Amino acid sequence: MNPQGAHALPITAAEDAHYSAGDGGIGSRGITVLADKVIEKIASQVVSEESVAGGSSGGFLGIGTRADLSARPRASVELSGNIATLSVEVGMLYPVPLRQATEALRQRIRTRVMELTGIEVRQVDVRVSWLTTIDAGTGGRRKLL
Amino acid sequence: MKQTAGTLNRTWLTVLGILLLAAGIALLLQAAGVLPTRANTAPAGDKVVPGDLYPYFGVSWVVVLLMVIGLIVGVLGLMWLIAQIPRKNTADTYRLSDGAQGRTTCDPSVLAKAVENQVNNLPGVVTSSALLRGTATEPNLTLKVTVTDTADVQDLLRQLETSTLPNLSTALESPLQESRLQIDVSSRNQNTGTVVRSTGTVIQ
Lengths: 145, 204
Fold this sequence. Notes:
Distance between the termini of chain A: 58 Å
Low-confidence stretches of chain B: none
CATH class of the domain at 35-135 in chain A: Alpha Beta
Number of strands of chain B: 5
Distance between the termini of chain B: 57 Å
Low-confidence stretches of chain A: 136-140
CATH architecture of the domain at 35-135 in chain A: 2-Layer Sandwich
Mean pLDDT of chain A: 77
CATH topology of the largest domain in chain B: GMP Synthetase, Chain A, domain 3
CATH superfamily of the largest domain in chain B: ANL, C-terminal domain
Shape of chain A: elongated
Strand content of chain B: 15-25%
Mean pLDDT of chain B: 86
Number of domains of chain B: 2
CATH architecture of the largest domain in chain B: 2-Layer Sandwich
Radius of gyration of chain A: 19 Å
Oligomer: heterodimer
Order of helices and strands of chain B: HHHHEEHEEHE
Shape of chain B: elongated
Number of helices of chain A: 3
């Protein structure tokens, strides 16, 4: 039984057989446990690496935050066994085709999370919470050139 | 730009008008003495209700019936009054895609804000407010733009048609079903607070 909010990595049958053939078997080698936070952070990091999507940075208690395409957005994960359902709240660049951009983002999150953790991502819900234009990057403030 | 109860008002006022007109004509005919001969009603000058009305209200079902009718009329009147409150009819959350892989949602106010930001940066625009209605596949845009008194409105319209509206269509990947535009003129100045980036001479 995993501790609350954590997830043990699955071990395939081939790996099991390989380790069992060695000394002591799988039980003596210990287990790797991943917290939910890890999956959430991986997902949000993937979003922040995309050029058209991102999170918000700065502010205090949600006040005064500003759009930042290189910041990590908020992500949450629901785990049931080895299957994860992710939901991310992202900001996008305007105007990009939102359906295509979020679909690409979804595929990227799914691939990267599966590669890095071995967890099957079944569903990625994307909520677009703000849109920004490239010009609005300075937020209307004067910028020293 | 808000939804008002215009049609409802016209319908009900017509119905009430017809009813009152019919009652008025009946009263005139009765007074002229046409109705008593044709429809066998009490002739003019006679009392319509002989005696007093107390025996009628003594029967319990008459009282109940009058109460129910009064209640229905009261509720209808209240509903008509409530319908006078203007509504914005903002769209629900736009569902951009909904498959087994996950769903993509976007609040219409987020898109409206993006449109406003873009319109506010157009030359001569003081302020603007956008409102989206409809669905993600059939969006409707209502845009209210306040311009300065020296703004070139034709140029603004051309820019809105060539950049703002196509951008929204691109973002939603579906053509706008309807777009309404209201232009107000204000004596205030445009104040976007942005600076134009220039490539100045670098002094060594």
